[in-house]
Amino acid sequence: MGMRIYNFNAGPAALPLPVLEEIQAEFLDFKGSGMSITEVSHRSKWFDDVMEDAIERTKRLLHLGDKFEVLFIQGGASLQFCMVPMNLSLEGRPVVYINTGTWSTKAIKEAKIQGKEVRVLASSEDQNFSYIPSGFEIDQTEAYVHFTSNNTIKGTQWSTFPEAGNVPLVCDMSSDIMSRPFDASPFGLIYAGAQKNIGPSGTALVIIRKDMLERTPSHLPTMLKYTTFSEKNSMFNTPSCFVIYAISLVLKWIDETIGGLEKMADINAKIRTQGLLTQPHKMAVDSHLIDFGKRRCCLSFQRSKLREAIADCISDFLGCFRNENTPFAGNTQFENQVLIPARHMKIPQKRMPISPHELISSVNDVMNASIIK
Ligand SMILES: Cc1ncc(COP(=O)(O)O)c(C=O)c1O
What we know:
By secondary structure, this protein is an alpha/beta fold. The protein has ten helices and nine strands. The protein folds into two domains: 17-256, Type I PLP-dependent aspartate aminotransferase-like (Major domain) (Aspartate Aminotransferase, domain 2, 3-Layer(aba) Sandwich), CATH 3.40.640; 260-368, no CATH class. Strands 1-7-6-5-4-2-3 form a seven-stranded mixed beta sheet, with helices on both faces. A two-stranded antiparallel ribbon has the order 8-9. The longest helix is centred in the C-terminal third of the chain and has 18 residues, at 241-258. Helices cover 31% and strands 13% of the residues. The site of pyridoxal-5'-phosphate (PLP) has 11 residues, from helix 3.
């Protein structure tokens, strides 16, 4: 294999190398079927096992218990912006959003398009979404409270989640799901586009508390109802078989190689406590928003296509661990993001993809110059 190249632009994130290798090893003959996973029937035992594995690992890693169902719905996180208000709003009760960036703004727009009574409870728009709002109170008559746990573009992350009492929380966790453990019990629904943290693009992971399914109005089109996916185990129509298979392997890797989300969070904490990323206000923006025009380059340690390269760089810088099964090679795993002004980087403007070596030396230069303090 030649040098692995990291996409420096928008799009799906890197997958752990061991997962890619496992996919490669069984690609032509999936579990002795004589077919590739892209060819086996979704009504077959082979695929049933894949689906069950993806669901069970999600439940186990997130300690979901029996109160939740795990669904896979095509259309990415963006379709969830629309399905959430469509399915979960309640007559005469506002749907509530906390606006912390680009993705929550889009979610709000989709609820408004449907004519829902939308209340923006808190927003950090006044300061270009550079902080997480606090000090708001959630009225107990509200239908749900929606927020984005990690604001991929703006780079802020909720460290603890809003207290909503009996009002169900609804969360877009696209860019930090499976990077840390959390208590799922206050959540009515969690969704995540797969391509950030858990697999290739092509599906959203949707975790729904069972009682929320009762809210789905019967008049909705079949494919826009959560109940359709729940009643048919996400197989009312042909699901994204390959994507769900890849997700099951990423979850297995997190589960068995990393050792679960507590371990993952430890790894993240270790990076944090090395003193590298101590100023939340400097945390910024996802790698796919690298904006050379504004002369800044934002590297996301969380969902970056560059994470292996950056990991090498950080490891060198910190003298910290790195081995064959390095979690840095993962798809998810950094809670922290850091803003590096592009002028400090020797990356030629607008040239992508960039080789890991160029990036490493460039980031190394930046770190050595102590721009990140
Ligand atoms: C937090 C968040 N929500 C939603 C999306 C949109 O995801 P999708 O492309 O699956 O619709 C993204 C994409 O970057 C994201 O980071």
